[in-house]
Amino acid sequence: MNVGTLLDYLTVFVLAILLGFEVISRVPATLHTPLMSGTNSIHGIVLVGAIYLAATADTPLAAGLAFVAMAFAGANVVGGYVVTDRMLQMFKRRPAAPTDKAAR
């Protein structure tokens, strides 16, 4: 891999970080949970792409970056499911409190 290719990859990486930060920072706080649960499939695709990159890495640097990408993508997938589960728990009915007629 030559320096120009690495510079191209780093430029795309930095632009993706900046764009992602701008998009997420403009989402209202009330929409973060539904947005997280709705994008789990996208995170899964990112994880598959990171695994593919790790399998085709030809240098130690590429393998290391692919491993970091897999870790971040895996954390996104797991975190998305945890948040979705917590959100769904809010909509479950709680058991009714028992009434104690003998105490009256």
Describe this structure in words.
The mean pLDDT is 82. The protein is built from 4 helices and no strands. The protein has helices at 3-25, 32-38, 40-55, 60-90. With 104 residues, it is an all-alpha fold. The protein has one domain (3-90).
What characteristics describe this protein?
104 residues; mainly alpha; elongated
N/C terminus separation = 81 Å
- The low-confidence runs, each spanning 5 or more residues with pLDDT under 50, are none
Shape: elongated
Q: Which strand-content bin applies to the residues?
A: under 5%
Count of helix runs: 4
How would you summarize what this structure contains?
With 104 residues, the protein is an all-alpha fold.
Sequence-ordered SSE layout with sheet pairings:
Layout: H1 3-25, H2 32-38, H3 40-55, H4 60-90
Helix pairs in contact: 2-4, 3-4
